[in-house]
Structures are given as C-alpha cells and as structure tokens.
Amino acid sequence: MPTEAKKPLSIGALARKAGVSVETIRYYQRQGLMRAPEKPHGQIRHYDQQDVNRIRFIKSAQGLGFSLKEVSELLRLADGTHCAEASQMAEHKLQDVRQKLEDLTHMEAALDHLVSACRDPDKRVACPLIVALESGGA
Fold first, then answer.
1. Which string of b and e fits 78-108 if b means at least 16 CB within 10 Å?
2. What pLDDT does residue 3 have?
3. Furthest CA-CA distance within the chain
4. Which residues sit opposite 47 in a β-bridge?
5. Which residues contact 22 (CB under 8 A, 6 or more apart)?
6. Which of 70, 86, 100, 136 is the most exposed place for a label (fewest CB within 10 A)?
7. Is position 99 within any domain?
8. In whole angstroms, what is the distance from residue 56 CA to residue 96 CA?
C-alpha cells in the first residue's frame, strides 16, 4: 500500500491538499506552469506530491507579487543552480514593491487631505472630493 506522500492524487485531492481550486490547477496547466498527466483510457489523471509542491511554489511566488509570467521564469530557475538570476528577479520585484509603496503613500496623503476637506463644513461650497476629481487635482 502506498504511503500518504506516494499515494496518487486525483485533481480534486490535489486541489484540497494544495489549497487551491480545481479550476486554478487547470488554469496553471493551460498556462504551462504545471504538467497535465497522461489520462489512461477510462481512468482519471493522477498527481503526486511534486505537483502539490509546485502549486505551493506558484502560490508563494504570487504572494510575493510575482506575475504568472515571472513565476514561469522562476520555475525555470528552480533547480537551484541559477541563484544569481533568481536574486536579480527578486531585486527587480523589490524595486517595484518599493515604488508601489511610494505611490500608495502619495495616494494616502491626497485622500487624507480630501477627506479632511470634506469634513470641514465652514469651507465647503461644493464637495471637495468631487471638485478635485473633476479638475484632475486629486
């Protein structure tokens, strides 16, 4: 009898074990991120622990902000011998995240100012938020 780690998994069992939906697995297959195992005539496809690990890799990379195209590249580098290339990708992603944080900080300040202006009934002729959005000055 196969051990739990060696026991073949149906796509539904794979989805549950990896914490994703069956449609996510099928999408990853269509995108070339995962293999679609052979389907023996009249039987179901079988997956294994490597497939669970691959999905977890994909989800972890997405959680760090990598696009599926970038995840595909990381998977290509996943044999562990391309650390410099993987590190370079991570550095670029870090720069992107820092830029987004800066942009979000500016957005927060602008919205904070507009919300404060909306709360000041003495200075209000028209809604400051709507006026700012209409004039492009947000």
1. eeeeeeeebeebeeebeeeeeeeeeeeeeee
2. 56
3. 78
4. 9
5. 11, 12, 15
6. 136
7. no
8. 23
Contact 33, 68 (CB under 8 A): yes
Backbone angles phi, psi at 68, to 5 degrees: -65, -30
Averaged pLDDT in 10-residue chunks for the chain of 138 residues: 71 96 97 90 89 96 96 90 92 97 96 85 73 80
Report d(CA 129, CA 113) in Å as an integer.
9
CATH number, domain of 62, equals 1.10.1660.10
Q: Where are the beta strands (DSSP E) in the chain?
A: none
Please, which contacts does 69-73 make with residues 24 or more away whose CB atoms are closer than 8 Å? 71/33, 72/31, 72/32, 72/33
Enter the pTM of the model: 0.77
Quote the number of domains for the chain.
1
Q: Answer whether residue 134 is part of any domain.
A: no
Angle between the N-to-C axes of helices 83-119 and 68-76, in degrees from 0 to 180, rounded to the nearest 10: 160
Q: Domain residues for 13?
A: 1-76
